[in-house]
Amino acid sequence: PLILKSLNALEERLDEKTFFRANRKHIVNLRMIDKIEPYFNGGLLLELKGWNPAEKIEVSRRQTVKFKEMMSL
Q: Which H, E and C letters describe the chain, residue by residue?
């Protein structure tokens, strides 16, 4: 859906235990992650439940460090 706010503004309102900013374009519901794969240059790819498996979300290198700490990977 179209939201007329920046992702930064939206991210501030979401519960950080449930949602994670994967990159500049995506905020991910952690409960919807189906698969985590290693990716180019130390990044990660996330496959979400109910999504087309060909459509994966790339976690930026900077956010990969935070994601691994948060998920104890």
A: CCCCCCHHHHHHHCCCCCEEECCCCCEEEHHHEEEEEECHHHCEEEEECCCCCCCCEEECHHHHHHHHHHHCC
> Can you give the pTM of this predicted structure?
0.82
Q: How far apart are the C-alpha atoms of 1 and 16, rounded to whole Å? A: 21
| Closest C-alpha to 46, from 32, 62, 61 | 32
Task: Judge contact between 60 and 43, C-beta under 8 A.
Answer: yes
Longest CA span, the chain: 34
> Among residues of the chain, what percentage have pLDDT more than 90?
71
